[in-house]
Design a protein that fits this description.
The protein is an all-alpha fold. The chain has one domain. 80% of the residues lie in helices and 0% in strands. Helix 1 packs antiparallel against helix 2 and helix 2 runs antiparallel to helix 3. The model has no long low-confidence stretch (mean pLDDT 78).
Amino acid sequence: MLVMASLIILGTLCYISSCSSKRMWYNSLSITLCCLCIVLLFALSVIIVGEHTLAKSEVLTYKLTKEAVEQQANSSNVMERAVLFRIKLNMNRRILNAKYWNDSLWFDWFISDEFANLELLR
């Protein structure tokens, strides 16, 4: 959020300074910076929306995986248990990765809290 606010402020200041300036090189530099801020703000917004959409699908995958693990917990087939162990391992790795980045100062707004707060599969 801090990055987005900084880009909005920088873009606004560049636009205001380009309107009030009479020098041609300074005017074109300010307009270029303003356009760059707008493009970066748009890209950041698209990335955030995409990441939260991906987190919603990860939560659904988690629920389906947890249900499959509970159903096959007492399976006597070694191959099925090995595959489920690998699936649990990958899901736990993704959850721990999300928890790590969600606890950091700069990426806490980027990672969905819903996915980061899931419990690990046992």
